[in-house]
Design brief:
It contains 14 helices and 22 strands. The protein is of the alpha/beta class and 465 residues long. The chain is globular and about 70 Å long.
Length: 465
């Protein structure tokens, strides 16, 4: 058996792993690369395998850095089934067409820009994939419940376990039979932080022959949840009532937006922020993801289910749908909390809100999640004094808050705690889905504290198991 790392190897996006035996070839995840100058070329380059030869695909969850290249693979000839959890299937019904729409719009913008520019690069730009191709890929999705045995191939058995990251996120337990011997592979996917709102804690796993574990926050600890609530309340009260500005939150439409709304309701009910706040969720995808969160309420933790049954009105949340409604928010000069995707500011409506709010000292940009290297969100976190939006240089005068305690990723101690449930060391552990320095540092920590055999693979590396 061979295992090849096609993405999320010493980086945090592009999650994709190829498993090959004499009788079966399958992928775990097929994520889009995001952020940095090489992301587009990485997404467009040949995938390193023939999509027609892949028997099936397993998805850990719906985030685009784990699923976003599925339409491209289908367009290139992949004809097999794609297995995921039921909520992931429904979320992708929203997210993949939305991603394709962004691809088409960005290609249109780049084409117009090239035609106007006095350079030799005047050819039209094709989108990575189209909305039609995204809809075609949805026909390949099959949804399953947690803890339900799945046999996608005579040689392979799979179970999805709750990863506690976002709605429907899964740890994959995969048993592969080859020449009469069975090897158990475990793919952590993205693990959630224990004790967080909405989601269950990640399911403990006790054994694996081969383990792939994420390391996004493998070099740091999150703030306690009470401290995070206090910091969020301070940022809101200081901005809206002292500085008389707006709070703009880049947030992932799936997971982070719903958690932020939940926490804002809690703060209002506790009297830490006023109950009459105007909160705008400017993302059609976030609106649909919130609807699906309510549909799959039984997949949430017990406290969240109880809150959904008993919670009062609290803050006023308005979901904007049309472009006109979104544009109207640009005329709001103070008193608003605007939540918009994308979470790393690489696309979507958040870029328009940044364009109209970054230039004022009264406003606050509140970062609620991890910002990958090369993304606009990361440049803001790193203290950029000026950024480029829609071809225009925008000075950064707004105050920046980073509320790291809201992360949907497990921190260093939570990752170690999850690994501590294994009854014996895996034969081989691979550290993935972390920036190079973070992944290598976490690998050394796992080796030192647990005594495990650890590898931090590079992109394209292949291992005989």
């Amino acid at each position: 058996m061979n295992l090849t790392f096609l993405g999320a190897a010493r980086e945090v996006t592009g999650s994709c792993y190829l498993v090959e035996t004499d009788g079966v070839r399958f992928l775990v995840d097929c994520g889009m690369f995001q952020g940095g100058r090489t992301a587009d070329s990485s997404n467009r380059e040949a995938p390193g395998f023939d999509p027609e030869d892949i028997d099936f695909i397993l998805l850990t969850h719906a985030h685009i850095d784990h699923s976003g290249l599925l339409p491209r693979l289908v367009a290139m000839g992949f004809k097999g089934p794609v297995y995921c959890t039921e909520p992931t299937r429904d979320l992708l019904g929203v997210m993949l067409p939305d991603s394709a729409h962004l691809q088409e719009k960005e290609a249109e913008w780049e084409t117009r820009h090239r035609r106007r520019a006095k350079t030799g690069r005047r050819q039209d730009v094709a989108p990575l994939y189209t909305v039609a191709q995204a809809h075609a890929s949805l026909k390949r999705l099959y949804g399953y419940a947690y803890d339900t045995p799945l046999h996608p191939h005579p040689q392979v058995r799979v179970q999805f376990r709750d990863a506690g990251h976002i709605l429907g996120s899964a740890i994959l337990e995969v048993w592969v039979n080859e020449a009469g011997a069975t090897t158990k592979l475990v793919f952590s996917g993205d693990l959630g932080q224990p004790g967080r709102p909405l989601m269950h804690d990640p399911t403990p796993i006790e054994e694996a022959d081969i383990l792939l574990v994420e390391s996004t926050y493998g070099n740091r600890l999150h703030k306690p949840l009470d401290s995070t609530r206090e910091e969020l309340a301070h940022a809101i009260n200081d901005t809206l009532f002292k500085k008389r500005g707006n709070v703009v939150m880049p947030a992932f439409a799936v997971g982070r937006t719903q958690e932020v709304i939940y926490m804002l309701h809690e703060l209002a009910e506790d009297g830490r922020i006023p109950q009459d706040l105007e909160v705008y969720v400017d993302s059609p995808m976030a609106t649909e993801a919130t609807r699906l969160t309510l549909k799959y309420h039984q997949w949430l933790d017990e406290d969240a289910q109880k809150a959904l049954r008993t919670r009062g009105q609290g803050i006023r949340v308005r979901f904007t749908e049309s472009v006109e409604e979104s544009m109207a928010l640009n005329r709001v000069k103070h008193g608003a909390i605007i939540i918009a995707a994308s979470g790393m500011c690489e696309g979507g409506r958040i870029r328009h809100h940044l364009r109209h709010n970054l230039t004022s000292h009264a406003n606050t940009i509140l970062i609620t999640g991890f910002q990958a290297a090369g993304t606009l969100g990361r440049r803001l976190v790193d203290g950029a004094k000026e950024v480029t939006l829609f071809g225009e240089r925008i000075p950064v005068h707004a105050e920046l808050y980073t509320v790291g305690g809201l992360s949907a990723h497990a921190d260093r101690d939570a990752l170690l705690g999850w690994l501590g449930h294994f009854r014996k060391p895996p034969r081989q552990t691979f550290i993935v889905h972390g920036e190079s320095e973070t992944a290598q540092g976490f690998g050394l920590l796992v080796h030192k504290q647990l005594g495990w055999r650890v590898e931090v693979p590079k992109k394209g590396a292949s291992y005989a198991l």
